[in-house]
Amino acid sequence: MIYYYERLLPFRYIFQWLNHSPKPCQDFTMREFAYEYRSGAYQRYNSYSSLDEFKQSVIKANPTRFEVGAVYAVNPKDRKTLPKSAMKPLEKELVIDIDLTDYDDIRTCCSKTQICTRCWKFITVATKIIEQALRDDFGFEHMVWVFSGRRGAHCWVSDKRARVLEEPKRRAIVEYLDVLKNKGNKRLNLRRPYHPHIERSYEILKPHFLDIILTEQDPWADDEKAEELLNSLPDKNLNEALRKLWKERPGRSSLQKWKDIDETARKISTKNFNTKVIVEAKQDIILETMYPRLDVEVTRQMIHLLKSPFCIHPGTGNVCVPFDASKTFDPTNSPNLRQIQKEIETWEVEHSGVPQERKTSDWEKTSLKPYVDLFSKFVGEVLKSERNGKRDREENGDELEF
Q: What pLDDT does 392 receive?
């Protein structure tokens, strides 16, 4: 890990991102960092006065990863000399956390810590829904998605308005986004007409339902899972007819069973049978299976720490790289520590004795380059916004109202 910290991790961009300025200010110097070690030890309340101190401390400590926390009213490393009430968090990026483990009831390709390109599609559609809501419904502009290194993604919102949100407003935002709300085995049964955010989310998800759910995941192929599908339908007569059909014709795929719902509904249609209810139930099922599943506590609590972009996941060796949610990202082919070490060695052999016009950073010699470039661009936009917005905030204020 020392090799990675000394040569590859883009400390300067992480510093600028968290500091919101080229020169050290309280956004960075009063910020908490935590270290996790191979032994299992966990060290909190580290803080630094400069980029160089930050980098040298990480190299010296050589943690398996480091995590980013809140900006406090006092210096976190001085907490032992201060009353507990003094350790008040003032700012923290608004963070959204999505983990594929929460999709284990619907994904069939993988489970637990495993992922593949098929189930990553849940994350792909989730990022589109969350990002559009954050931009259109809350007016946030500066957000970056980061691969967790194993099975999830984190969205960091760096707008000043987002960073200064108090916990009640953070809770309000995540409750707005958390449509599923740990419904368990209960039928979703959303109110009609859909809230505009839910309607928009449904329109995003609907075109992907055939591909992701019915074709690739095929979650209702066996009898036990088919019962879960039936439990999501509100009509007992329809359920019994479908149950009988699937018993007589075993081995039907999820796609066939999905079509069976409409065909069977038409056959048993009577004056007392409301086809609109079935249509709405199927709409809810699309949302139930594909809508983003959020770890709400990560968003709610300002003091919650989260591993920094470009950390190495200790279990996989994968780099926690930022990615563009509007483009295809393959987590199974993202940079890995061993891979990028070999890439540096290869680059240096190929360029041995070749004069360089400028000094090439080590990360530029590896597959990390496009991800660092993406993060650098994001950080530049944050810094520009901070400069341009400072005067407006001082004169007019800029709080998020609910």
A: 67
